[in-house]
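pinned: reference chain
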Amino acid sequence: MGTGASDLLVLEDVTTYYAQMRILEGINLRVGQGELVCLLGGNASGKSTTLKTILGLVRPRSGRVLLDGNDLTACPVPERISRGMAIVPENRRLFPDMTVRENLELGAVLSDGSTLEEDFSRVYKLFPRLDERRRQLAGTLSGGEQQMVAMGRALMSRPRLLLMDEPSMGLAPLLVQQNFRIIKEVHESGVAVLVVEQNAAMALSIADRGYVLSTGEIVLEGPARELLKSEDLKRAYLGG
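pinned: its structure tokens
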């Protein structure tokens, strides 16, 4: 698979194992500059392993991970973060006994601090509720507010690529809709986004393109509008 000039992230024939168990097989995936892409699949499809491989938490047995055309396959996690990746992890993973502001500040831990207040202002503009709650302990927030903190923390590092792991998990339907509106706003601010999701309809409703994983292989890909109408998507998702 060739890399285009506008590609920000490219996974090139990535195969990943846990011990002797193959989890991913020959994954080819790309996210363009400023693009919103979703990676869909059910439980045990390999979605989380794909994210871990992109971040460097797992090293592929073969294949490459490229950012801006640079091979990061052997790079540690901090270097990938410093080059412009950030993640909003599954279940948010905040520090409940720290304030909203303290949690946000952790997102800027690799920066020199010179733009810290500017970054706070940018996050508070996107999430006005967090400005109101900045001195409140994160553990006392609602689920929707905690998701805002997790997203805001990731944005404090000024990422060019935002990775999102199951952003709808554990949220009420109304909050899921609100969450995906916020993801769309973040994307429209110029950040490329890769959303890993089980909720295909919601993810595809805001994405430019999508990929479908099944037992560690990409079985379907294409423009989001086409995938939304695809009978193949339903079959792939239901394992038929």
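why pinned: The two ends are 28 Å apart (CA to CA). Residues 214 and 239 are 8 Å apart (CA to CA).
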